[in-house]
Amino acid sequence: MLAGDNKGNLTQSFGGLRVIDFSTTIAGPHCTRMLADMGAEVIKIETTEGETMRTRPPLRNNCSTAFGQLNVGKNSMVLDLKSPAGVEAVRRLIATADVLVENFRPGVMRRLKLDYAAIRDINPRLIFCSISGYGQTGPSAELPAYAPVIHAASGYEMAHLAYQPGRSRPDYCGIYHADVLTGVYAFGAISAALYQRSVSGQGQHIDVSMLESMLSLTLNEVQWSQFEVKATQRPMFGPSETTDGYVMVAIASEKTFQSLMQVIGHAEWITDPRFARYSDRRENWASLMDGVEAWSRSVTTAQCLAALNEYGVPSSAYRTVREALADPQIAHRGALAEVQDDGGTFKVMNLPFRMSGAKVAAAPRMSTLGEHTLSYLKEIGLSGDEIARFTDNATARE
Length: 398
Hints:
Strand order of the largest sheet: 5-2-1-6-7-8
Number of strands: 13
């Protein structure tokens, strides 16, 4: 428990904040889910069919837990943005909001007359965050983009390939780093803009690029691409085989190196000219790791980790996500939250940080599609007859 953490009295950092969420799939919803976990009222705007992630497995009673992971804690409002009435309803909502998040292709919000320039006058304090593949302007701005495309376009995949000896073909993409990373950058930018607004009183437009977000992962490579750098062996951290699996061992310091040599029974390598200095180890890394693996292949994974932990050598077994979630550390941290929807219960990840003075947690229940439409239409001033026409029209379009 953090010092001073009294969970019974904690408020939420973004309590009282209203967010209009036009985003779909992963990057935008991940950002707004973070805002919701910290207390923001997030109003997710959807069509009558609901956004595409609602159909992604696992499905129970037509409820997607993949969608739930990204959207728990948000209120659902169904609007037709192609109708004048739908756009007018959104404009009234925007007048009451603190933040708007959208990840349409650049130009879509402008065609809907809901871009920042079109709505700035009705709410000068609004933080308007646009997430896109390449940014809102420039020669690539209107190109379609999904995470795997951005992984390739950013150079990330080729940089990763350079660390795979003997391989010439880039990896397949199964985990969408660009979406999650960009969502986190958007969350950070929104938080900064809210702080700035507390001083200036003014909102602003935030333009978040997936391409630049992915490029930010290639810290060394960005520098190496600018200069002639002498080719050198870089320490390559990878699996060391045991009798029943694989472990990852990271040699992070001189002390770590010396401790590892004690564990594998090669104390003499501490002064061996091939390994004594860091620069020597870089040039002879493959030989060093061959020696480590010769030892690890003689023991089980459990025996290997016990020996490494005893000497303070950073290490882990290669685990599945199921195995990682079963780690007692995850339970100790309260990293998983149970959520209820019409399909039953499922667990989602809480945010990976804790605060001593604020509650940070996923909401316990998923909204149903359009659950809050009526209450928001009443709030923005529609009469009973207007609401009836509005909902009748929406039903007719289904």
